[in-house]
Amino acid sequence: MDRLNNEAREDYANHLLTLLKDNKHAKFRIDFLELHPIDQAEFFITLDKDERQTLYQILTSEEMAGVFQGLDFEEQKDLITETDQYYAANMINHLYADDAADFLSELEHSEAQKLLKAMNLEEANDVKELMAYPPKTAGAIMTKEFISLSSTNTVQEVIEKLRAEGPNAETIYYLYVVNPSNQLVGVLSLRDLITAPSDIRVETLMSPRVVSVIASTNQEEVAKIIKKYDFLAAPVTDDEGVLLGIVTVDDVIDVLEDEATEDFGDFTASRGATDVNVTSFKAARLRAPWIVLLMFFGLITAGVIDQFEETLNQIVLLAAFIPLLMGSAGNAGTQSLAVVVRGLALGTLEKKGLFQTLLREFYTGMMIGLICAASLMIIIPIFYGNLMLAFIVGISIFFSLSVATVIGAIVPLIINKLKLDPAFASGPFITTVNDILGLIIYFTIATALLDLL
User: Fold this and answer.
1) CB 170 within 8 A of CB 236
2) Is the pLDDT of residue 342 over 90?
3) Average pLDDT over the chain, rounded to whole?
4) Which of 55, 224, 390, 432 qualifies as a cystine partner to 380, CB 3.0-4.6 A?
């Protein structure tokens, strides 16, 4: 199969399905195994239960491991329940240890233990080791399938070792050098290895300056290090420098996706409920606390309006601009929140300086406020014929946006100082705070200038 565009994939999937239904299992097996594992997984999820049972009989547990890795957790769980324990355990034996640990960690404890007991002892011990690390740390996401060398090995010896152990390693682009105590002392790239004479020793080729992380390092920090140095993998050690495993770039991509999903959930006050597969009950349970809390904040907004009831009674038209003031201030604050959270996540905020960042956001808010104020001072007199009303709304939005950008920037900075995730300063929270401040500014100015209306 030379090339697979979307149409070709669909035709090929139909071809495979026909072979499966016609019981041409030998031909199906050959053609199916030509597919990339991701395409195999996509074909797998289109099958009904009986067709999947036939597939389990055609493919070995090792071959099914490639399909398994391309599935979502719920689909993986279904696959496990549809096969016998021996087949399932042997399939997990052929996963990389970090992938197996990720899956088993999501299962009920009793189910995970049954599978671990049925697995190969060495593989099970590696998986248990990874599962013992705290979630979201380098130890929890590292893999045990890597190549380590001795500094006294020759290039020829290393190449022979790669031929023997390489097929089972997750990556061989970096080869890590350890001393007799298994402490990390150097790193050797595959490029340097294959371009060197066969009798040269590793110690003359390796770089002794190794960028590594310890097992307790937060996974987000690991991702930053791999991104910073453009690594394909980073070694993980214990506090004594003993090499424990490696974190590969594909794991980092998953980490970045998970962290982005969490931050998006925090921004929208819906952490844990952004997955479309989450049930309505669970989504409501996760989202309701924030909504209820923000509802009580809304009562403060109502209280602010109530405090200026006399002003509203005299000039009812002021009420027409409340949504405009609240919406603009909330949006400006959320924009500043996004800027600061991104800066904290990428580490660019420290380079720029906190004070400079706050000053920049304040000036940005002032300029946006001036643009909005000028626009309103032109539009309002045309539609409402009241120049003083235009001035009140314009000057109010100017001050509201200036303050809102500072609030949107300073709240995540405070939360970050408290060692919490700055994205926790969610958009709805910032919006509600700025709504309240915007209303206070608006009605204070309107009350002060009431006699001129």
Assistant:
1) no
2) no
3) 87
4) 390
Residue 2: the pLDDT is: 45
Tokens of 419: 């060692």
Instruction: Give per-residue pLDDT as tens, 137-184.
Output: 999 999 998 999 999 999 999 999 999 998 888 888 899 999 999 999
pLDDT in tens, 41-67: 999 999 999 999 999 999 999 999 999
**Are residues 297 and 435 both part of a single domain?**
yes
Question: What pLDDT does residue 276 have?
Answer: 63
Are 313 and 433 within one domain? yes
Q: How far is CA 145 from the centre of its chain?
A: 24
233-266 pLDDT, tens digit each: 999 999 999 999 999 998 888 887 777 777 666 6
pLDDT at residue 387 above 50?
A: yes
Query: Containing domain of residue 170, as a range?
Result: 148-248
Rg (CA), the chain: 30
Q: Are residues 159 and 233 in the same domain?
A: yes
Residues 113 and 158 in one domain: no
Residue 215, both tokens: 């097992």
